[in-house]
Amino acid sequence: MNRDTLLEILDLARWAPSGDNTQPWRFEIVADDRIAIHGHDTRAHVIYDFDGHASHMAHGALLETLRLAATRFGFAIDWTMRPDRPDTAPIYDITLIPSALPEDPLAAFIQARCVQRRPMAIRPLTAEQRAALVSAVGPGYTVQFFSSFGERLAVARLLWKNAYLRLTCPEAYRVHREIIEWNARYSTDRIPDQAVGVDPLTARLMRWVMQSWERVEFFNRYLQGTLAPRLQLDFLPAIACAAHLLLRPKQPQAGLKDHIAAGIALQRLWLTATRLGLHLQPEMTPVIFRWYVQANRQISRQSAINEGAVQLARRFEQISSTQPEDGFAFFCRIGYSQVPRSRSIRKELGKLMMN
């Protein structure tokens, strides 16, 4: 292998998904056939990155995307975690190995995979599509579908309540303020406002309100400021889809490796959906808030937020017929739609390199 081929593989792999397009990784070329991926997480300043789990899942998605990209150029990969590293800054050592196996069919969809935050068609998934999605995640996971109108309505109500917690939580506000790139169709390191999923008037109002927490509190308290975004971003899209999918590990997720494995599974699920002509939107906040509840940890300095999260977790378990100790890895909605006209893209490869 030469360096140019290695760079082509990395250039494709960088399209892996990450929470709010944070891209929590940097690449180091160690030799012509070896890469070190320097991972990090955002737990110190992002409420949604509970114990770094979301970032660790992104690392797993990156490793799977790298594996898929390598097959396009006739290589397999072997990866290990460098020992004695904190889980806040893991390093993954990658070796590329010549392989006679053909290109993985999912490699063709790496760049096409994207998020659809707007309403989608409610046409049901076919039995073949369901089977392909279940097969994609591997034997360590189950996929639970919520597809009938009643099930989608139950999820919509869950997300409606969840969105109220999200939009009234001061710790979450700091994240929301930073992740949107305004007046943008594409964003290399955030979410462009045109991809958020609200109408232009609501987007302009959101931009003005989000300039300070005092404005957010005023609008929420006196002008029902959460109603429009909750309706447009949560409730209506939850109804307008083919189904919601809950990815559940068969064994408890005990540490970094388990969340990496979940990230590998979710990327295969997402790319398979893209291959099937479907679009997907992560709905991770209820899962993440439930992680806090399971660990008996506070989300916010406001007690009402923490109490609401406990109620939300119990409702999620009722909807999914699960127990409080059961693990949830990934939650999303899926359906049919045109390709979104606006999306997050990625930092140029050069900006992700350490050498």
Detail the poorly predicted runs.
Answer: none
Estimate the mean pLDDT confidence. Answer: 96
Per the CATH scheme, the topology name of the largest domain is NADH Oxidase
Number of strands: 12
User: Level of helix content?
Assistant: 40-55%
Instruction: Please identify the structural class as seen in this structure.
Output: alpha+beta
Q: What's the shape?
A: globular
Percentage beta strand = 15-25%
**Separate helix tally:** 12
Total domain units: 2
CATH architecture of the largest domain: 3-Layer(aba) Sandwich
Based on the model shown, name its key terms:
NADH Oxidase; 355 residues; four-stranded antiparallel beta sheet; alpha+beta; 44% helix
Give the SSE map.
Layout (H helix, E strand, L loop, with lengths): L2 H11 L11 E7 L2 E6 L13 H20 L2 E7 L9 E8 L28 H10 L4 E6 L2 H20 L1 H10 E2 L4 E2 L3 E2 L7 H10 L3 H10 L4 H13 L3 E7 L6 H20 L3 E4 L2 H10 L8 H18 L9 E6 L7 E2 L4 H4 L3
Parallel strand pairs: 6-8, 7-12
Antiparallel strand pairs: 1-2, 2-4, 3-4, 5-9, 9-11, 10-11
Helix pairs in contact: 1-2, 2-9, 3-9, 4-8, 4-11, 10-11
Mind explaining what this structure looks like?
It contains twelve helices and twelve strands. The longest helix is centred in the N-terminal third of the chain and has 20 residues, at 53-72. It has two domains: 3-113, NADH Oxidase (3-Layer(aba) Sandwich); 127-344, NADH Oxidase, CATH 3.40.109. Helix 2 (53-72) packs across helix 9 and helix 3 runs antiparallel to helix 9. The protein is globular. The strands form four sheets. The protein has a four-stranded antiparallel beta sheet, with helices on one face. The model has no long low-confidence stretch (mean pLDDT 96). With 355 residues, it is of the alpha+beta class.
